[in-house]
Amino acid sequence: MxxxxxxGHRVVFLFDVxxxxxxxxxxxxxxxxHLVSEVGSDGAQEYWQIFEQLRAGxxxxxxxxxxxxxxxxHPRAPHLLTVSQFLITYPFAERLFPDVVKVIEHVQQWxxxxxxxxxxxxxxxxxxxxxxxxxxxxxxxxxxxHKEQELDxxxxxxxxxxxxxxxxxxxxxxxxxxxxxxxxxxxxVRQGHYATDPKILATYPPADISIGRIGDLLQCQLHELxxxxx
Length: 230
What we know:
By secondary structure, this protein is an alpha/beta fold.
C-alpha cells in the first residue's frame, strides 16, 4: 500500500471501511446464512462465540482466525473449506454503500482520500482490495491493529494542516478528536449497528458533523468539512 511522504497537504480525508464505506452488517448476515447451511445452527453459533472471543482478545475482527480456531475444535467437520472459500471470494464490491466511489472522487478535488482501517493482516487488506476501495483511493491504505492509537504514524505518512475523518464509531471519532483537537473534523456516519446503539450514543460526545448515509457527503463543500469544535 502506498504511503505519501511529501511536504504535506492542506487537508487529508480519512475513511473507515466497515459500515462506513462497506455494508459489513449485511456481509455478516450472509456469512451467518452460509455457516448455517454448512455447519448447522449450533456450529454457526459456536463460530460466532469464537469470533467474539478473538475480538475481545485482539481488539479487531478476525473472520479467518475464528474459522481456523473452529477447525482446531472440529478437525473432521465437513464443508469447512467451503466456508473459507465463501470468505475469500465474497463479492465485497457489491456491498459498497451507494455513492461511495462518487464520495471519494468528490473529496479528492481538495486533498487525498486515505483508507484508515483496523483489522487482521490478511482478510482486511483482501476486503479493501476486492471491494475496489484500494483502487478508488489510488492505494492510499493504512491498516492498524488499533488505528486510534497510531495517529502519529498516520500523520507521518500523510502530513496535513487539517484532517477530516469519516467513521461509524463515535468511540474512534472521540479518540481522534482528543489527539488532533481543532486540526480534525470528525464526521459520524449513522450506518450499521454501532452507529445506532443507544448506549454508545450516550457514552461518547457528538461528532463535529453527523450524516445519515455516506452519500450525504456529496452535498458537503470544503468549508463545511473544515469545521471543527474548539
